[in-house]
Write a structure and sequence with these properties.
Blueprint: H1 11-24, E1 42-49, E2 56-65, E3 70-79, H2 85-96, E4 103-106, E5 110-111, E6 115-116, H3 119-126, E7 130-134, H4 142-149, H5 153-161, E8 166-169, E9 175-181, H6 185-195, H7 203-216
Parallel strand pairs: 1-4, 4-7
Antiparallel strand pairs: 1-2, 2-3, 5-6, 7-9, 8-9
Helix pairs in contact: 1-3, 2-3, 4-5
Length: 231
């Protein structure tokens, strides 16, 4: 959704309009419950890749079973410093046309230089639980948002709505920080463990990151990514 910055509508009204537009998008029904005792639940892992001067970041989504079989992927894009991350991820989910995905797993909910994912809107429209991961402790980014966007009230409101992160220690011994929507902390921890083989990055996110890098660098064959890179 494009918004004219010269419009006299207030930022709070714009925020409501954006959320209303996202929630009105037609998406397939996928209200499946997660049963972590099943052999192969499915996650849509989403990650991005961009360079500092890019106007758009590349998004990749990978559908992976918890037995680590990949059986689908999609690409999208998000505007660097924009406000379209949520609708872009929802668009990827819609294009996949999958009714067997059990949750969405994000490599961060603040992507593409402060393009904030509205996790509750994403969960409501997809009818799926959403887990967003980060890997370091942080005091927050309100100061950075104000620095980059002046008063930045709209982005600040979106950021504050995300709420606090929950520390989760994985079976590998690594600690990650999760934001959760429509899923409990206990169930979220079990899901993360079911998709994590080593380190702290679940496989759907790791593979999505590799695909996003490859898509971004497809016109630069000299650039190569290894499966163990953390770039």
């Amino acid at each position: 959704m494009l918004i004219d910055s010269n419009n006299s509508v207030t930022s709070s009204t714009l925020d409501r309009l954006v959320r209303r537009r996202i929630l009105s998008l037609p998406f397939p029904s996928a209200g499946m419950k997660i049963h972590t005792n099943k052999r192969a639940i499915r996650a849509l892992g989403v990650a991005e890749s961009f360079r500092e001067r890019d106007r758009k970041s590349v998004l990749a989504g990978v559908v992976m079973r918890s037995d680590l079989v990949v059986d689908g992927f999609a690409f999208g894009e998000a505007t660097v410093e924009g406000d379209d991350a949520t609708s872009s991820i929802l668009g990827m989910f819609r294009r996949l046309r999958r009714d067997d995905v059990n949750l969405i797993l994000l490599s961060g909910c603040i992507i593409s230089m402060y393009n904030v994912v509205d996790m509750d809107a994403l969960a409501e429209s997809s009818r799926l639980p959403v887990v967003a991961l980060t890997y370091k402790e942080s005091p927050g980014i309100e100061g950075a948002i104000r620095h980059h966007f002046g008063d930045g009230e709209k982005k600040l409101a979106m950021y504050r709505r995300l709420g606090p992160r929950t520390a989760v220690t994985l079976k590998t011994g690594y600690r990650v920080f999760a934001r959760l929507s429509r899923i409990s902390e206990a169930e979220g921890g079990r899901v993360l463990n079911s998709f994590t083989v080593q380190g702290g990055v679940p496989e759907p996110v790791r593979v999505a990151k590799l695909l996003a890098h490859a898509r971004r660098d497809s016109n630069h064959p000299a650039t190569r990514m290894s499966a163990t890179s953390s770039r």
